[in-house]
Amino acid sequence: MATQEITAPNMDRFWNDDLAAADPDIAAAIDKELARQRDKIELIASENIASKAVLEAAGSVFTNKYAEGYPGKRYYGGCDYADVVENLAIERACELFDCNFANVQPNSGSQMNQAVFLALLQPGDTFMGLDLNSGGHLTHGSPVNMSGKWFNPVAYGVRKDSEEIDMDEVMAIAKEHKPKLIIAGGTAYSRIWDWEAFRKVADEVGAYLMVDMSHISGLVAGGAHPSPFPHADVVTSTTHKSLRGPRSGIILWNDEKYTKPINMAVFPGMQGGPLMHIVAAKAVAFREALRPDFKDYAHAVVENARALAASIEDNGLRIVSGGTDNHSMLVDLTPMDVTGKAAEKGLDRAYLTCNKNGIPFDTRSPFVTSGIRLGTPAGTTRGFGPEEFRKIGAMIVQVVEGLSRNGDDGDAEVEERIRREVGELCAGFPVYPGM
Ligand code: DSN
C-alpha cells in the first residue's frame, strides 16, 4: 500500500481569518441582524440590547473551557479563571438581588425552572402556576411542556372583570388542591405581583413559593418593582430580558437548606459543563446592573411603558387590565376586529417588531390571537423616552387601523410613511454605534 505523506495542517486561516473571511454566509446574516436591530424598533417585551462588554464576554475564549462542577470542586483541570468568573457572577447576583445564594449555571429559563422542579418535587406532584392564557409561561404547567406532562399542574388565572390576579381565588384553589409548590410570575402580566400575599397562600397550604421573575428582574434589580425576597423560597430569572444580560438563567435563594438540592439539580441533574463564556457575560451584566444608572434605566422602562400604554389607549385601542405597572402590556385588538397574527405582520412591515399574544379569555387560537404584547426594555436601552414612546403608540394604532380597513394586507401607504418615521426616530438613537 502506498504511504501517504502527512503534512502538518496549515493553521494560518484558523488563527487569522475573521468571520467574514471564514464564513461569509454567517457573517452576512449577522450583519443583516445588526442592521435589523438598528433600523427597526424592538418592542418584544422579553428582548433587550446587551452591552458591547456583555457581547465581548459572551464571545470570549471561555467558550473553550469545560468546568463541570462548582468553583473549587471541578471535574476538570485548568479551572482557575473559570472559578474567578463564576465566583464573581455569584457574588454580584447575590448583591444585586439581596439574597444569600445563587446558581449562575442554568443555560436557559426553561432549564432553570426544570432544575427547581428536580430539586423540590417528585414526578406526579401537584403545583400551581399562572395559566398560559392569563400570561403564564410554558414551563409553569402547560400540557405540552415537561412541567405539565410529568407533574400535576393546577392553574390560577386573572379575573374576567379586572384582568388581574385575584389572591382570594389563588388561596381558594391552593386550599382545594394542596400544591407542593406555587409559582408566581409570568410573561404577559403587566401588574405588580403581591409576593407577600403569595407567601401567605404558600404558608397556608405548606407549599414552596417559587418566583419566576424573568420578565421583571431588571426592574427588581433597579428598584422599580418590589423584590420577591424575603417572601420566596426560590427565585428564578432569565438574564436577557429587562436585566439586559446574555441569553441565560439563574436561580437565587436565601435558606442554606436549598443549596445542595438546587446545585445538584443543575449539575449533574440537568446539565453538564456550564457555558462559561455565558457565565462570564452574566457577571458583566450583573456589574452593569449594580451601577447607579441602572436604577434610572429600570424606572425609565416603567415610565416609558406607561407612556406607550396611554398613547395606545388615547388613539383608540384597549390595554388589558387598563394599563401597566411594569415594562410590558397586552393590547386588545378586538375593538378594531384585527388579529394578533395580522398585527404582528403589519407592524413588522412598518419596522415595528412585536409578537402576537393571546389576551385573557381569548377565543382565538395561540397561532392567531386577539392581541399583541409590547415592551419597553429595548427601546429604553437605545435612549427612547416618553415622547418617543407616545409617537410609537400612535404609529402602532395607525397600522392596526389600516389592517382594520383593508384586511390583512393593511394600508401600504400608511405602512410606508411609518417606515420612514421609524427610520428618522432610529437615526437619532443609534444601536451599537461603534460596530
Ligand atoms: N419566550 C419568553 C417570552 O417571550 O416571554 C419567555 O420565555
Automatic annotation (TrEMBL):
(6S)-5,6,7,8-tetrahydrofolate binds at residues 132, 136-138, 256, 365-367. It catalyses: (6R)-5,10-methylene-5,6,7,8-tetrahydrofolate + glycine + H2O = (6S)-5,6,7,8-tetrahydrofolate + L-serine. It is found in: Cytoplasm. InterPro entries: PyrdxlP-dep_Trfase, PyrdxlP-dep_Trfase_major, PyrdxlP-dep_Trfase_small, Ser_HO-MeTrfase, Ser_HO-MeTrfase-like, Ser_HO-MeTrfase_PLP_BS, SHMT-like_dom. Its EC number is 2.1.2.1. Residues 20-396 form the Serine hydroxymethyltransferase-like domain. Its cofactor is pyridoxal 5'-phosphate. Gene3D superfamilies: Aspartate Aminotransferase, domain 1, Type I PLP-dependent aspartate aminotransferase-like (Major domain). The record marks 240 as: Plays an important role in substrate specificity. Keywords: Amino-acid biosynthesis, Cytoplasm, One-carbon metabolism, Pyridoxal phosphate, Transferase. Pathway: One-carbon metabolism; tetrahydrofolate interconversion; Amino-acid biosynthesis; glycine biosynthesis; glycine from L-serine: step 1/1. The modification N6-(pyridoxal phosphate)lysine is found at residue 241. Homodimer. Catalyzes the reversible interconversion of serine and glycine with tetrahydrofolate (THF) serving as the one-carbon carrier. This reaction serves as the major source of one-carbon groups required for the biosynthesis of purines, thymidylate, methionine, and other important biomolecules. Also exhibits THF-independent aldolase activity toward beta-hydroxyamino acids, producing glycine and aldehydes, via a retro-aldol mechanism. Belongs to the SHMT family. This is Serine hydroxymethyltransferase. It comes from Aurantiacibacter sediminis. The lineage of its organism: Bacteria, Pseudomonadati, Pseudomonadota, Alphaproteobacteria, Sphingomonadales.
